[in-house]
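Entry:
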Amino acid sequence: TLVDPKLEIYDASGTKIVENDNWSATLADTAASVGAFALLANSRDAALLVTLPPGAYSAQVSGIANGTGEALVEVYEVP
């Protein structure tokens, strides 16, 4: 697994909209409400809560300090 991922979201023009390195525990309640994996409080996982207008977007995951490994990206619609 990718030990310390960074998550970036880009719009269709290639402009970076938002990024996250280490998730915030303030997202735990939202994540639980949509059935997302529970993350430990000290986890280095990346997670975002962002409101986007309709359109095409890309998610890019990379490793901090050139880390390598496998990452899983999940996308949820939050009511």
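The first helix runs from residue 28 to 33.
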